[in-house]
Amino acid sequence: MKTFAFLTVLVVAAMATAQGVAPAVTAQLNTIYSGADGKFEAAPDTAVVHLDIAAQDDSSRAAYNKASAAAERARQVLKANGIDPKAAQVGFYSVQPLYDWKNPKHKVIGYRVTTYVTLKLKDFTKVGALTEQLADIEDTQNQSLSYILEDMEQAKAKAAEDALKKARNQANAVAAAGGRTLGELLYATVDVNPQIVPVPMVMRSMAAAVPGAQPPPPTAEFTPQTVNVNAHVNAMFALK
Length: 240
Fold this sequence. Notes:
Radius of gyration: 28 Å
Shape: elongated
Order of helices and strands: HEEHEEHEHEEHE
Oligomer: single chain
CATH superfamily of the largest domain: Protein of unknown function (DUF541), domain 2
Number of strands: 8
Number of helices: 5
Strand order of the largest sheet: 3-4-2-5-7
CATH architecture of the largest domain: 2-Layer Sandwich
Strand content: 35-45%
Largest sheet: 5 strands, antiparallel
CATH topology of the largest domain: Alpha-Beta Plaits
Number of domains: 2
Distance between the termini: 10 Å
CATH class of the largest domain: Alpha Beta
């Protein structure tokens, strides 16, 4: 019977290794090794609004003034929606000269000022009006919206629990087939991987395609996309 237990470890471990997920584990008598994937779908708890501000003009001062004006309008939109502008984060700021590459001397013909603002929202009811109003600001581009899960620990635990349950069921089936009983958990490793997919928003040029009409925001009445948390568990159990 011990010979069977040893062979069981080798067979199950070999199957897991073929999938490219098994770590190096020393086979032991009267044990069985199993690996499985688990997942948990969680509702997002945070909306992330991203807005690029980009202004261009003949002089750096004029481009700067345009970008400043766009940023001020963005701050006013936030305040109008009951959001403190300090809650938004600025990622970078740059001033770049624009060159005439057709001219052998590469003469400077203008300047471009760029920056971007990122805002995290817990109140999803504000998303529609906020993105719609931000899209109306001149000298802005590349507005985007994504939903994330910041409180990730519970979701990770649920995904790992699902993976371990499947690994135990697989090991239990092999043990029962050999006339043995699955014992306690001796060893386990867990790898958790959250998958967050951004949801692009409509651009200002698209929103203005229907003159005189005020269509609902692109996100209206839709449910925010869930966040998938995947986990892989490698486990070793004792055999009775």
